[in-house]
Amino acid sequence: MYGVELKDVLTHEDLAIGSYRFAVSRLIPEMTRVALQTHKKDLMREKPDFAKREFLYRLSRSGYEKEWGKDYKKPGLGTRILSTLLRFMPKVGPFKGLGFNSPTPQTEDLYIKSINATVDQYRALLEEVKTDSLSAPNRDLDSGNVTKAAEYSLADDTYAKLLIQLSEQKFDRTSPELRENILQFYSDLSIPIETKKDRHLWEETLSALGQLKSIVPQQTGVGSAAQ
Fold this sequence. Notes:
Blueprint: H1 6-9, H2 13-38, H3 40-44, H4 50-59, H5 61-68, H6 77-88, H7 105-130, H8 153-168, H9 176-185, H10 199-214
Helix pairs in contact: 2-6, 4-7, 8-10
């Protein structure tokens, strides 16, 4: 719980949710189908090793249907036409980003093994959810490291903006756990925190941090918080 309302994070909540749903359900799957259809021969050329066979089973139609059912959208005529156009379109100018370089065997092997490890870990976490024993560590989802100041520039800026936003609300919805987490994050101000590069933002951060230290929030709910 971050102590802020969802509407404070998403200015146009309905539009943001609708855009996310469209991207996840239509745009990304469609572009993935186009990419696979365009480079299907390249991707199937190498002889699969054990890890690759496991990976292909997880992504094969039979494997998908066995685990999740047959309710999914197969590549249609539009996908095939678009993939054909992209295959012969010169990869210059605005279409330069559409160029495809086949990964090296080493890179492909790392990718396949990472997918397999991700699936295994996800299944293990689902089992923990079923038994109500899930304990998610406070890790940076971009780097995978434990979240701490000066570890990742975007995390530094995000903590600063959250702290300032909470101060503008007089820390009314700040839980004791969130307060402790923020104070721990800023426990050592001598390290090279990215926010220091913006003098104005750093001054605001220090001011808000001073306010937080002087306020002990009551043990109350934080309302509908942005996750």
